[in-house]
């Protein structure tokens, strides 16, 4: 159930004018990294808020960014009039970088806390244990095209400056702020539009901080104004595939909020200042966003928010317990930890087969690795099948047919591929770049620890077995020597290690085929600390 917060208007010393009057506000926190759990949770909470009769929805955004596919799913929900009330607002509290900015622009109204920052929404590529990857210009253009299409569509729907929102996404787009000489209206223009308007190069007042970030003339960057020289679909045949993809996205959107400026308009507009240069992405503070017309309200806290809506009660719709658990168990530290324990226990079980303790822990880790992603919809069916197949084959190798090798090799391959796919697919957690060296070191230590620990436990087990023989048969007991071909009777199940009685005495033996029932007649086929035996055919 949502938590209801009173507006406590009497506590405010300086009342502000009421801007809107609604009866019930749904406050939906969007905090932390954006992922598939965020997208599914947003859909659930939007539906619940509408079912509860909320006539305003406010996204309380505080995020460093997140996955692009999840962001697209969320903006699609926010633009669907059947899933949101007419009064939809994004409230940026503290920060809304990258995906957070894309979500805010998808809302018809944006408010900020006085300390808020947002922007810097260029797509990046990263994989676990490798960190950020550099993208070639063509690859970046292919990823940027749908993102630019989405933010331009949001700007046209919500009457934001579409040149301004593009500067959040793409490096290389220079913008200048112009003001209408009569009504004070402010707009943003790019380099080409400025040159068309005034017939000269625009002044560049901002210092170049990173010249290497400026795109070269032969690198295509899909900006909807400066990089596409055509204006109609008929000219598509003259473009390369990447330019054509960007133009098709452009012409399929809503019409522009304003037409392009030309020489006839130069007396109506005056230059205010340069907004951003070609070597950086646009990032704004709250007041600067308000000056540029993107931020429409400054809201400090929930009491301020309630006053903005006429003193209405606020219903906070938090993530459910299942969603919080899913986010915790699918976070990169937890998943890496579970994988590490899984591999460590498999190694220990292979050194000491038949103990089942390490095998059970490994199975539990595998279940946790798969069950939570399944519950929150982050794992594909084939990834699940590969992991389960790998665990099953490893179990056969360790407990049923040790030494056979083929099930163990196939199981290790299947488990590795399944975990890798689940760990690097859509919605998978990304290891922060600063944590990569420590993560690699952790796996190396665990691998070495598994080998050393397994051998140490194996040695300790052997000493305990010898001590058991001495205690059972007296201090003068010497460990009996069993020769190849000696026959005896199993006194306990060999799974794969069991106790057998020979004419020479009792010994612990290992079943060649993994399992032999107690009472079976056996023959030694290999000598050692644990002689390997097989069933004697009757």
Task: Walk me through the structure.
This protein has 15 helices and 19 strands. It is elongated and about 110 Å long. By secondary structure, it is of the alpha/beta class. The protein has helices at residues 36-51, 68-78, 99-105, 137-158, 162-169, 191-198, 241-251, 286-291, 302-308, 321-329, 332-351, 357-375, 381-400, 406-424, 436-473, and strands at residues 3-5, 24-31, 56-63, 87-97, 109-112, 117-119, 125-127, 131-133, 175-180, 186-189, 269-276, 283-285, 297-298, 313-316, 487-490, 497-502, 505-511, 521-526, 532-535. Strands 1, 2, 3, 4, 5, 6, 12, 13 and 14 form a nine-stranded mixed sheet that branches. 41% of the residues lie in helices and 18% in strands.
Largest sheet: 9 strands, mixed
Number of strands: 19
What is the beta-strand fraction? 15-25%
Task: Examine the secondary-structure arrangement and name the CATH architecture of the largest domain.
Answer: Alpha-Beta Complex
Q: Going by CATH, what is the homologous superfamily of the largest domain?
A: 2-enoyl-CoA Hydratase, Chain A, domain 1
Do you know the CATH topology of the largest domain? 2-enoyl-CoA Hydratase, Chain A, domain 1
Mean pLDDT: 75
Count of separate DSSP helical elements: 15
Structural class: alpha/beta
Helix content: 40-55%
Rg over CA atoms = 33 Å
The CATH first-level class of the largest domain comes to Alpha Beta
Number of domains: 4
Low-pLDDT stretches are 1-19, 208-233, 426-435, 470-478
Span between termini: 70 Å
- Form type: elongated
